[in-house]
Every structure is written in C-alpha cells, then in structure tokens.
Specification:
It contains 14 helices and 19 strands. By secondary structure, it is an alpha/beta fold. It has two domains: 105 residues, Urease, subunit C, domain 1, CATH 2.30.40.10; 311 residues, Alpha-Beta Barrel (TIM Barrel), CATH 3.20.20.140. The strands form three sheets. An eight-stranded parallel β-sheet has the order 8-9-10-11-12-13-14-15. Strands 3-2-7-16-17-18-19 form a seven-stranded mixed β-sheet, covered by helices on one side. It has a four-stranded mixed β-sheet with strand order 5-4-1-6, with no helix packed on it.
Length: 458
C-alpha cells in the first residue's frame, strides 16, 4: 500500500474487527480502497490516505447488518388503531392501509428508512416487501432506486402473498397475487437486479410472506425457483403461538414441519423471528444451516415472546438481528436491536433456568457476522478484514452518558447510551459524519414522506 488509499479510519479507542479471530486492536485503524478493506492494524502503521477519519475516543466496528425489515411500514409508524392487540390484530388493521402503496410511497419510505438506518450505524439491510397492490407499479424497482440514490448496500426481497381472507388467510384480496404472477415477477426481479459478484450493492432474495398468507404450493415452487436462480429464501416463521394454531388447523403440522415439507429446510433460507421453536425444531434448524433474523424489539412490542437465541446459536444456527417493520418496532435502530438482544437474552436465561448471560460482544457479533451468515455473505460483510467490504461504523464514547465507562469500550458501547453512529461508511463512502446524514435531500424527502403518510393513514 505504497500509494495513498481512498480512506483510513484511524486512532480508534478500540477497533473491533469481528473477524474470524475476533481481533480487537487498541488504537487501531482500517484502510479502504476501491470499496474494500485493504488493511487493518495498530498505531503508527497506517497508510497514507486521500480521506482520513479521526476515530479518537471512539469504538470502530463493522457496519451493522439488518437482516429483517419492512421499510414501507414507516408510513404507518405507531398507528394507534393497530396497537394493543396481538400480531394477527395488528396485521388485519394495517393491511387495508398498505393496500394504498405505490411507487412514490415505496421510494420515499425506503429513502427515509435507509437514512434512519445509516444514522444508527447500519450499512447493509434486507427488506421484506411482500405487499404488491394491483396498480401500484414496480415497487421493488422503486426501493432499489432509493438505495442506489443514497449508496446503501441493499438486499431487497421479492415478497408475496397469495392466500387471501376468502381462502382462509389474513390479507384482503386487494394485496394478494396468484402464484404464476408472483413467480414470473420474482424471476424477472432477479434477472434485472441481482448482482452475485463480491462486494455487490444489490442482491435479491425470494420471500413468500408467511405460512398464513401464502399457499403451500407457492412455497414449494419458490424454493425450486431459488435453487434454479441460485438466490436466497426468506420468510416469517414460528413468530407467534397463533401461527402454531393456524398451521395445525390449515396444514396439519407445526410451522417448522410445514417449512421442511415445502422444501425450505436448507442453508439457502433465513427466517424472521423464530420465537416459538421447540428443542427438536432448533436442532433441525441448526442441521439445515437455516439462519434466523432475531427481532427483539418487535417481539417485545407484539408480545410474541423471548426467542431462544442462546439455544439457536449453540445448535449452529446463524443468528442475525433485524429491526422488523417500523409499524411494529417503530424505531429502526440497529444499536437498539443489539441492546435489546442483549437484555432480552439475559432475561430469557433467567426464565429458562440457564442463567446464560448474553454479552455486548455476543450482540455485536449477531449484528455483524451473524447477519452476514443469514445473508450468505460470510467473510464479505459484517467484519473488517482484508477483502471484506469497506463498510464501517464509528461510535463516540464520550459525554455524560459514558462518564466513568473506562474498562471495556464494547460493553460501554451497548450498556451506555442510547447511541447513534458518529460516522457511517458504505463501500468507502461517508454517509453519516458527526452524527449527521450528509445527503442534502433529507429535509425535502421528509416533507414528501409526511404527505404520503397522511394520505395513506386517511
């Protein structure tokens, strides 16, 4: 690295690489060139750079990875009539509102949602867009356009619903499609947008919504299509006891049995929530290598339970973190999800008698490496090592909230706060600096978003 590289983050209080050896470097630096990490090291060995980011007094981590989201739901955030009930009540209240989605609504909600995620140190996000109203336009292309305009690493999923109320499902007819349309549009989305190359900014996955909103045939045919196209699979699974009852009545088997029967039990799949698996089902998930997007804030808000995160990880399940939709979790902050994962995991340890105490490092690992495992990008995202993408988060550890927190920067990072990122870097480009989103269009986008949100909530 004799010539100047594009960017160096230097002088960190602690650089937590979260690499295969979980290397931590006091006073460390990370260098990015051509969008990829080209080196990490200790004080005094930094290369020359065209852009230098001073991380004095800061914790530096890989950019956080959000493995489950419904970004469009920030248009109905904290919508009062949907609050106070269980998951099914919440969904049935909001489906008619989401039936009003169009390309403008999806573009604006995605743009604003990605800005919010970037402010929280997130650099890669998936999105489960499963509502495709008739006449709404190409919603997947609209959200990909927003991600490209901002420069955010994006894993949108072509979601779907095919089982309406008249067929025994939850969603109204206006937001479901037939299986052939869904599969044809899914294949077209992969053809147009999916980039399998190393360091890709956009990758597509296929994502029928849930056992109570799609047919078994669609699940099976989608798994076959994903195999042929070599893309990943995503869905909700084992989120709620109501889901158990629904699957037993509709399919004669529990959700994870149904998941296996339709061909999804593989390392190609990752699922959201997985709050209610029994020990035998946890073992099967681990054997398949199926990932889990743990969404602690949503699980607590909707009262679905405390996910068995310790047991899932012990079984070999890749466990990442997810903000979930803004209408259930309301705050799209990956720092908040990491903190709630730590706290709810400790609470679960008390209730199940294991006394297992999740640490801040466990939560950081789930928010980075675990997310990479869910998205099939191990060694590429979620760590700072040569050849990985140049996605970095810098976290200040000063001010009144951190007074006295001197012994461990990682524990301080998650125990003190709340905290947003000071600097967020994607592919070597700075999106957030000094805690401020740098794109000049934020205020105008927020005004436009409010107009659309008011229209949708009416």
């Amino acid at each position: 690295m004799s010539d100047a590289v594009d960017l160096v983050v230097r002088g960190a209080e602690l650089l937590a690489t979260v690499d295969g050896d979980r290397t931590e470097i006091p006073g460390g630096w990370v260098a990015v060139d051509g969008g990829l990490v080209v080196g990490v090291g200790g004080p005094g060995t930094e290369p020359a750079a065209r852009v230098n980011v001073d991380a004095s007094g800061c914790l530096v981590t890989p950019g956080l990875v959000n493995t489950h989201h419904h970004i469009y739901q920030n248009l109905t955030r904290a919508y009062l009539p949907a609050l106070g009930g269980n998951l099914f009540h919440w969904l049935k209240t909001l489906y008619p509102k989401w039936a009003r989605l169009d390309e403008e609504a999806v573009y604006l909600s995605t743009w604003v949602g990605l800005a919010e995620l970037a402010l929280g140190g997130c650099t890669t996000t998936s999105d489960h867009l499963y509502v495709h109203p008739r006449g709404g336009g190409d919603l997947l292309a609209a959200e990909i356009s927003a991600a490209r305009d901002i420069g955010f690493r994006f894993h949108p999923t072509r979601g779907s619903m095919s089982l309406s109320e008249k067929d025994g499902g939850l969603p109204p007819d206006s937001v479901v499609q037939d299986d052939d349309t869904i599969l044809a549009q899914s294949e077209e989305a992969v053809r147009r947008h999916h980039d399998p190359s190393h360091g890709a900014m956009v990758r597509i996955a296929l994502a029928p919504c849930s056992p109570f909103s799609v047919t078994a045939e669609l699940m099976s045919r989608t798994a076959e299509l994903a195999e042929r196209l070599d893309v990943r699979l995503h869905t909700h699974l084992a989120e709620d006891t109501d889901e158990d009852a629904f699957c037993l009545e509709m399919f004669g088997r529990r959700p994870i049995e149904h998941f296996e029967d339709v061909g999804w039990g593989s390392s190609r799949s990752w699922v959201a929530h997985c709050v209610q698996p029994n020990p035998e089902e946890i073992s099967r998930l681990g054997g398949w290598g199926t990932g889990v997007a743990h969404c602690p804030s949503s699980n607590m808000i909707l009262g679905t339970g405390l996910a068995p995160v310790r047991d899932l990880r012990a079984a070999g399940v890749p466990v990442g973190l997810g903000c979930d939709g803004s209408s259930s979790a309301d705050s799209a902050s990956m720092w908040t999800e990491a903190r709630n994962a730590m706290l709810s995991g400790r609470l679960r340890g008390f209730y199940d008698g294991s006394r297992s105490l999740l640490t801040a490092r466990d939560a950081l690992e789930m928010a980075t490496r675990g997310g990479a495992g869910c998205l099939g990008r191990e060694g590429e995202i979620g760590e700072l090592s040569p050849g990985a993408v140049g996605d970095v988060a810098v976290w200040r550890l000063d001010g009144p909230a951190f007074a006295g927190a001197l012994s461990d920067p990682i524990e301080a990072w998650l125990r003190c706060g709340p905290l947003g990122a000071d600097t967020t870097i994607v592919a070597g480009e700075i999106l957030v600096q000094g805690g401020r989103f740098l794109h000049p269009g934020l205020e105008s986008r927020l005004r436009e978003h409010r107009v659309v949100a008011e229209r949708m909530q009416r």
